[in-house]
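Example complex used in Figure S2.
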Amino acid sequence: MEVLFASAVGVLVAAGVYLLLRARTFPVVLGLALISYAVNFYIFAMGRLRVGLEPIISEEATAYVDPIPQALVLTAIVIGFAMTAFVLVLALRANFDLGNDHVDGRPPEGER
Amino acid sequence: MNHWIVAPVVVPALFGVAIVLGTRGRLRSQRQLGLLATTALLAIAILLMVEARSGAVQVYALGAWPAPFGIVLVLDRLSAMMVLMTALVAFCSQLYAVSGPDARGANYHALFQFQLMGLCGAFLTGDVFNLFVFFEVLLIASYGLLLHGGGRDRVRAGLHYVVFNLVGSALFLIGVATIYGVTGTLNMADLAVKVAQVPEAEVSLLMSGALVLLVVFAIKAALLPVCFWLPLTYGSASAPVAALFAIMTKVGVYAIVRVYTMIFGGEAGPVANLAQPWLLPLALLTLVVGAIGALAGRRLRGLASYLVIASVGTMLIAVALGGEESLGAAFYYMAQSTFVLAALFLLVDLIASQRGATGDRLEPTGAVRQPVLLGGLFLLTAVAIAGLPPLSGFIGKVLVLRSALATPSAPWVYAAILGTSLLVLVAVSRAGSMVFWKVDEEGEKAAAISPAHGARVAAVVLLLALAVAMTAFAGPVVTFTNAIAAQVLHPADYVATVLAAKAAPATPADTHDAGGR
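Predicted assembly (629 residues):
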């Protein structure tokens, strides 16, 4: 499971960075979203990967998982969601105001 | 528990909501509420400063959850100084804003209050993840403020700024999560204890987490090589926003000081003084790049933005040097440069508004309407920024240089600070003579331009008066900044006070007390 999880995080970050470097607003937004997914997985993994356990300490429980990373992920998801919404609106606004979707406001020479 | 500690977070939050919901978009009542809120924040900040002066560390456990399990706010000398600086700059910036710039779009004052909430929260929190949350609060408010008023330039600069900071936030989470994965705690005081006990096998993991975090703080502080977002952003923001942003880079510097001298400081065992080897060369280069950028500036705003980068370089040189004297010098320099740079951003706007279509471009045009007033203010600002005697910039640089004397890196520090002082001096003199002396008679007639609004001049004068006061009372101020440095460098008291809250969970008496207020 560790290998699968780690590769998933790695692939998501790689894809996210690739999209970020495309320098067009829509791929950049998607890239940011992918990176934030990867980060959420990563935080989750920092509470150690355990299957079938509850994050609750009780009389009967013999083992439990760390609840704090789950709370952190929840916070990060909420913030990431809001930020993605904001950057999407900003990207649309930039597209209307600047007439193209390049992050610098004008495409480089030789590109349309 | 002292409930005033949470006030710098709660008061702007409540006023921000009140401004959104209570004023139905009427600018007049928004301005009144905004000014009231900022004045209240200033009063609270002064109160907290008085409380923190003695050096007693006070802890506020949010929701009465004891540290290190709950989130705590901690008031020590450093956070009190940062909150007071924020309140002072915010007050002057708002004084400037109410005379007109806030009318160019909706909800300026609400965004302003949320920005203050994020700033004060970031300075007061004693929890690393909570620091992330407050960073996001201040960032999202700053996105709104930066874009306030709209326009193509702002949208373009805003896009860069937002995307760059979102990547920074992702890195922040990776760093924090790694540190949590190794140490199992997020509380700063607890971290300061735990990082020294990390087993050998996990030290490198902890170090990578901590250095990822350094990248994030370097982005916020505008340290080379991640400083190039700043000139475009600050150059395109409206004047009062740029003045408030003068405090934003200090959030990064504050976080570096807090994390790398308190948590990963001299007492951190295997990870002691983790960031210092990286900080010093980068800070020296940042200073040089800032000065060269200022010299190359073709607009006054661009010049001011690069001066922000140069000031960050000077501050972080002093932080990287380590000792108590250097850190004290860093705090003195931080306070005075924040006031002076905020004044410069406001002053540049005043000058630009009297130069017609030329604006802040460094080209000859008609004389400004009030050459004596604006020229005098510019002279004062320039003297303080370049570090000429007698103003506070000189004292700040002397303190940094004096503290560097005994260190092995002294030649580099001396060469960088003295050399860049000359470059900055040339840059500001050139800008000043171009604007005030090289008057083109054919240029636009100044008579048609109305004189500067009284409140705007008052805001600039107030900020410069703070710098002058820091010069006149340099003795007591330096004694205090050295006391701040001593407290930050010897966190035993801080750690003990924060973790002592663990031994005393909320008693019924405490709960009653909280309900009673």
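Helices of chain A lie at 2-20, 25-45, 67-98. Residues 82 and 88 of chain A are 10 Å apart (CA to CA).
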